[in-house]
């Protein structure tokens, strides 16, 4: 994926998990339930176009901080 991607030859994309520490200015959601935030998602969900950042409408500067499992 051009925005966020990891390639590990020994690990399937559905087993590569991203964990959200904080999301300022909105939240991350999945396509099947865009009104609810998620705390983790997989590389496969990114590749399949199922993850979204939903902006909360604020005008503050957004800093990104992530942790990966």
TrEMBL record:
> What domain of life is recorded for the organism?
Eukaryota
Name the UniProt record assigns to this protein = Chondroitin sulfate proteoglycan 4
